[in-house]
Write a structure and sequence with these properties.
The structure is a single chain. By secondary structure, this protein is of the alpha/beta class. The chain is built from 14 helices and twelve strands. It starts with a strand and ends with a helix. It has a single domain (about 5-210, about 270-315), classed as Luciferase-like domain (TIM Barrel), CATH 3.20.20.30. The protein has helices at about 15-30, 45-50, 70-85, 100-105, 110-125, 155-160, 175-190, 210-225, 230-235, 240-250, 255-260, 265-270, 275-290, 305-315; strands at about 5, 35, 60, 65, 90-95, 130, 135, 145-150, 165-170, 200-205, 275, 295-300. Helix 9 (about 230-235) packs antiparallel against helix 10.
């Protein structure tokens, strides 16, 4: 079986020591990488802690919110993580979501222009071309790949020009294929090879032998994303326009039950790995055939605590 990555979530509320322990177990299970999301945590700090306590597994932020960090400072922290990881680190960058930024009093503006701007400064800083008070920033001993969260095809296109990889999420196999095509086409336009842009895709996993219970957990879990404008637009463009509209309408009323009800089993099957282990593996292979070079399984425990659910996913998808 070809190895895949795994996302481990500090948002689950587990202690950071437990997060690091789960990363060690992922390494022992021969996963290719461990990827850390960011919401109410610092993904770079989490990555640093994991880097210090592992030796082989790749580590990536999934993603760092560029609006919360001055780019040169982001580069300085990146150098520190890469040094601890001895070349195993990937810097995943993204623009977060407009409602989340506005809640912090931050204006999003032109998100892709900001992503381009920050990428240029981060790269210059990591390459030793940026100075402050007459001093150069530290340079990592090994280059740091930069990946983009790319929910929109326009961002995938920007990734083909500037990034080393894409981080997709809640994409159907068809959308995965199209995102890869767009990125690789743009890479060629800028004198790069398609192989210069690695395509990763995050796959929510709801692992349970009882398919009905797995569906129920998935419908609850996925409804949250439908309330975020970028994801809602992605769902609509992936063939789920009517359900996406219902989720957003219910979210505006703060009606969680209606949000969940709007997520059909068809939508769940299109976006996630659901049910018994064999069924999940079959679906994962469809993503590989669609161009996902690194599938990233995202454990979503079904009627169990987070760590137990993660360990079952690690066992089911071990390399």
């Amino acid at each position: 079986m070809t190895a895949c990555g795994v996302s481990l979530s500090p948002i689950s509320g587990i202690p950071y020591t437990e997060l690091v322990q789960l990363a060690r177990e992922a390494e022992q299970a021969s996963f290719s990488g461990v990827y850390i999301p960011e919401a109410i945590n610092d993904a770079l700090m989490c990555s640093y802690a994991i880097a210090r306590d592992t030796s082989r597994i790749q580590i990536g932020t999934w993603i760092v919110n560029i609006y919360l960090r001055e780019p040169a400072l982001c580069a300085a922290a990146t150098e520190m993580v890469q040094d601890a990881a001895d070349g195993r680190f990937i810097l995943g960058l993204g623009v977060s979501h407009r409602p989340a930024l506005e809640a912090r009093g931050i204006e999003m503006g032109n998100a892709r222009a900001r992503l381009r701007h920050d990428t240029e400064i981060i790269r210059k800083t990591l390459n030793g071309e940026n100075m402050m008070f007459g001093m150069k920033f530290r340079q990592p001993k090994k280059p740091v790949p930069i990946y983009y969260a790319a929910l929109a095809l326009e961002t995938a296109r920007l990734g083909g020009e500037l990034a080393d990889g894409l981080m997709l999420y809640l994409c159907t196999p068809e959308r995965t294929r199209r995102s890869a095509e767009v990125a690789h086409e743009e890479a060629r336009k800028h004198g790069r090879k398609p192989s210069d842009v690695t395509v990763t895709v995050g796959l929510p996993v709801f692992l349970h032998n009882d398919l009905k219970r797995a569906y129920a957990a998935a419908q609850r879990g996925l409804s949250f994303y439908g309330a975020l404008p970028f994801y809602n637009r992605l769902l609509a463009r992936s063939g789920f326009e009517a359900p996406a509209a219902k989720i957003m309408e219910a979210a505006k009323r703060r009606d969680a039950e209606a949000m969940t009800a709007a997520v059909s089993e068809e939508m769940v099957d299109a976006l996630a790995l659901v049910g018994p282990e064999a069924r999940c593996h079959e679906r994962l292979e469809q993503y590989r055939r669609a161009g996902a070079e690194i599938p990233i399984v995202v454990p979503n425990p079904v009627e169990e605590d987070y760590s137990t659910g993660v360990r079952r996913v690690l066992k089911a998808f071990r390399g």
